[in-house]
Amino acid sequence: MVKVNANYKNLKQNYLFANIAKRVFSYSLSNPEANIIKMGIGDVTQPLTPPVVKALIKASAEMGVKETFRGYGPDDQGYNFLKESIVNYYKSNCGVELYPNEIMISDGAKSDIANFTDLFSNDNVILIPDPVYPVYTDSNIMLGRKIQLIDGNESNNFLPLPYDGLECDIIYLCSPNNPTGAVYTKEQLKLWVDFAIEKNAIILYDAAYEAFISNTSLPRSIYEINDAKKCAVEFCSLSKTAGFTGTRLGYTIVPETLICDGESINKMWLRRQTTKFNGTAYIIQRGADAVFKDDGMKACHEIIEYYKGNAKIMADTMTELGIWYTGALNSPYIWIKCGMDSWEYFDMLLNEIHVVGTPGSGFGRCGAGYFRLTAFNTRENTIEAMNRFLKLFK
Ligand code: PLP
Q1: What is the separation of C-alpha 134 from the centre of its chain, rounded to a whole number of angstroms?
Q2: Is the domain defined by 6-48+295-393 classed in CATH 3.40.50.1970?
């Protein structure tokens, strides 16, 4: 008889966004005239930029011509033209030197983060910040692994740090963080790198929102920290940087110098990917390559600045209202303190001012009493939503 993976029974049902959608739907049924502003789901709203669209069209045309048609991509996970562009991006963006074979292209950060669990034995202790992007927890629960949470809270500005007596083997870090928008400083990341080296642990660093960091003293890559190439993998994505949430492209940096338990993690990840993944489409890799060219970067940054302008409007409103928050300045998320249960706050905002956000409790135990708003809406809607906040709370 077939036996299923019983660990799946330990997953909490992912009711968060379904529950939000249900409440919004039933409210709008009974209040059809309400102009509801949605600042809940972390999906982008602005379209792909013209340089990306041009590259996608050109690559599509190439695929229809015998001489330029491409089949399976190269075995080493990504075309060299894109890997070289990413090498140059790291050099100019944050002064980090990478080799093309340390970069592996994929269909997004979510799959890489979840699939990376394949490389490690089930008896590792996994350290995960709370609150955080739920994929880290769920992908490890599916394997029956022991998870230890490390608390984010107001007193550490939702940036937990290693402490005496902390023991673990695999450390997940997310900066800028989803949902809190909090960003580790170089000094704080150095503490994590030193800790990982001391414990023979590995850091799985999620930099999906690095492009939103404008404060140049903050690290955009963990490799800005000395010795990080000995202990950290970095996950990146064009989803929020370039509007690729529906187009799909991510990349993972696995340094050649990263050795765990005597094994090269770079070689293991390559082996895993060549066995279980047949690569990201050529057309999409050409579109991604356009992101890293001068005109592509400029166009993406115009959109990022637009979202960040929204985030600033939200931050200014919270400051004016005396509401405690993190994020917003170097991130598309603002994480506000509600002073009540997150779901009660959700209902209050929906009923009173028709604004939808995400209850913090959906991201972990430490998210209770907090609330996430995203900057991915239009400027007009953001201004209108914040005017409603001012009216409600003043
Ligand atoms: N990492 C974080 C922190 C995210 O918030 C997200 C998406 O929301 C991802 C990774 C997944 O990105 P992708 O769309 O590349 O799979």
Answers
A1: 11
A2: no
Q: Which fold has domain 70-293?
A: Aspartate Aminotransferase; domain 2 (3.40.640)
> Model confidence over 314-363: pLDDT tens digits?
999 999 999 999 999 999 999 999 999 999 999 999 999 999 999 999 99
Residue nearest to atom 5 of ligand 1 (CA): 178
Name the pLDDT band for 388 (thresholds 50, 70, 90). very high
237 CA to centre of ligand 1 in angstroms: 7
Considering only CA atoms, which residue is closest to atom 2 of ligand 1? 208
* Largest Cα–Cα separation, the chain: 66
Q: What is the pLDDT of residue 29?
A: 94
3-state secondary structure of 194: helix
Looking at ligand 1, which residue's alpha carbon is closest to its atom 1? Answer: 208
Q: How many angstroms separate the CA atoms of 148 and 136, rounded?
A: 12
Please tell me the predicted confidence (pLDDT) of residue 345: 97
In tens, the pLDDT along 282-305 reads 999 999 999 999 999 999 999 999
Alpha carbon of 165 to ligand 1 centroid (Å): 31
The ligand 1 site (C-beta within 6 Å) comprises 42, 108-110, 133, 174, 178, 206, 208, 237, 239, 245, 250
For residue 13, pLDDT beyond 90: no
CATH 3.90.1150.10 range(s) for the chain read 6-48+295-393
Half-sphere CA count of 320, side-chain side, radius 13 A: 14
Residue ranges, CATH 3.40.640.10, the chain: 70-293
Per residue in 16-68, pLDDT (tens digit) is: 888 999 999 999 999 999 999 999 988 999 999 999 999 999 999 999 999 99
CA angle, corner 357, sides to 351 and 361, nearest 5? Answer: 105
User: Which 3 state secondary structure label does DSSP give 165?
Assistant: coil
CA of 313 to the centre of ligand 1 (A): 24
| 8 Å CB contact between 251 and 280 | no
